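Re: the multi-chain job from yesterday

Posting the exact lines I submitted so nobody has to dig through the queue logs.
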Amino acid sequence: MTAPAATLVSWFRGLRWYLREVTGESAYDRYVERERHQHPGEAVLDRRAFERRRQDLVGSQPQQRCC
Amino acid sequence: MTTTVNPPPPPSTEDGRRRPDAKQVAIWSAVSVFAAVCWGVIALVRDEQISALWLLGAALGSYAIGYRFYSKFIAHRVLGLDDTRATPAERLDNGVDFEPTDRRVLFGHHFAAIAGAGPLVGPVLAAQMGYLPGTIWIIVGVIVAGAVQDMVILFLSMRRDGKSLGQMARDEIGPVGGIAALVGVFAIMIILLAVLALVVVNAMAESPWATFSIAMTIPIALFMGFYLRVIRPGRVLETTAIGVALLLLALIAGGWIEGSALADTFTLSKEALVLCLVIYGFVASVLPVWMLLTPRDYLSTFMKIGTIMLLAFGMVLARPLLQNEAVTDFAINGDGPVFAGSLFPFVFITIACGALSGFHALIASGTTPKMIEKESQVRLIGYGGMLAESFVAVSAIIAASIIDPGLYYAMNAPAALMGDSVQSASEAVATLGFSISPDQLAAAAAAVEEETLVSRTGGAPTLAIGMSQIFSAAFGGGLQAFWYHFAIMFEALFILTTVDAGTRVGRFMLQDTLGNVYKPMRDVSWRPGVYATSAIVVGGWGYFLYVGVTDPLGGINQLFPLFGIANQLLAAIALTVATTLLIKHGKLKWAWVTGIPLAWDATVTLTASYQKVFSDDPKLGFFAQRARFSDALDSGEVLAPAADLDGMRQVVTNTTVDGILAAFFAILVIIVIGDAARVCLRSMRNPETVTTTESPYVRSTLVAPSGMLATKEEKYAMAAAGGDGHDHDQDHDQDHDQDHDHRERR
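And the result, structure tokens for all chains:
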């Protein structure tokens, strides 16, 4: 790969990483990693169940939006 | 390649200072010269239009200097940020509300939470004083007051496991100050929601295009919520992409609606829109968040950040000239039609968000302190986040100052003054000392495909005109009408998000408070409690909103100063808590860092409240206004701008409520400051008796950079700490994805 192409790919990967993190899309991956690390061998929630739990939790702690 | 990492530069000295290096000195000298030149042009060029880019340059140069020097001073000397100390996110990490979050991600969250319509609306209204007073206040205010407040409150809350501002006031000042702060926060929120909702109503009224496209955001958000819950759980990016595409489609469809038979269906009066908003606010706050609030939040955040970047880019491309005067006569005589009162204190009240905003203290003591990874990142997120908001405010004052002043006043003066035709408006603008012909007014409305632009108060339409001019000059294509409605939708979208979220937060606060009296209230799943408290909150802002749209004197004109006063008084409470805590921590010699902004803010706000309550001028003082109308009412007279006796009665009621509120806010703040002064004096006299609720020291094991970009030393430290240490310095300057998994334990 040429240098500019590599830079472009690296920028794109950075942007994708940032958007996934900032929107919470990567929350499930982190959860799975965390559970595997802390409770190896135990079952983890599937994505649907995890996202439900996460959404319901947001509902019980609404974040203030400013002016 | 960890083995080839260079050793770090010489370690910092004890107090965090390093010997200056020549390159740094050269760079910062150049930045200072650049900022000074920009300020010089702004200050010295008169009788000639200057480019808006000078304002942008002055702002960016000043921010860079403020961030590099002042925030560093606060970080090291005043607060003593300590990266060996574990943050609550590290100590209490539960993967739910406490979770160490990458600083750049958290910066994004924090910025999205603090920046809303405030920094866009306030500067537009303040443009009636000219572009100079507002710009100076935005830039100087943020560097010495606003960003300092955000940073210090974020720090204090972080050291207390993310306690809220109200809790800190109660724990550190006392029950009286604490209760006053809590009541203040609630009351201020109600006014804030009402004023923001008023801005949206004024932008949508009688505009089928705007009403249709904004109404469509509800089904779009519902669809996104359903998609995320049922069809593709957690796929936020893809859902947001679909949502944004639908949103743009709704925007284009709005243009078709306007020319079609459906136009009448979407042409709503202000009163009808108030009813819609109140019902919407109630339903949105009792529905589960996944249905409406969360997806709407994704949309509005995406639109917000995208549009602001587009605006900055557009300004650089279009290089517009400032049409507004530097300082208008209204700044001195206080007779401006947009809001009454002279430069001091009202510029500092009208521009809250962007310079100093008390509301931020609620965010800085909310979720952000629970997610911060390292103490030193408080500087980037607290101070840096507020600088970014300030930049938005500077963009807004530019957008309002590049449009023709005649058009500006025709749009922003109350309907009672402008009449209801382009002829009457043109004549009224002439009496203000500006000029715009009826044809020009009609042409300006036609260019954005609106029925009329006369008296489209609230700031949003004016901003949208400014933005549409910048965008169509920058990107060409004669799409002014599209850009205008794009800008309206972008503002309405995140105002409605604030209304949703604010109503819900208000409901939780109320439930929590009432729970002290009647236990079941505290249960957030107890439906009667949920409905009752939601109705109280919606009823509160709904009342002020209704009053705002029907007020013969003009709602924005009356309510915006109240909102500004409320927001700045909240800032006074926050700065009081900050100053008290600096003193309690034995940092009396640094207490001026928050003490001076507090003194300034208290002076400005209490002066404004005093004038609003006690001024003899009926244009300015609420009670003088009340006396004038109630005297006339007693003798059966009808005074303009009221149309009949009902209108007269309305003015009397409204001015009474507004006057009492202004006095009430001021008294609350005097109580908090007085109570805090007592606590400060006591801890200065008997330092040994001082107790604070700061959490004890725990050593940190996390390694992460402090600033936006990792320095060489930080990369070295992370590589040394990281077990995997993969390719950390492979591409030296692009650290985007290389340290994203740096949260390795030592």
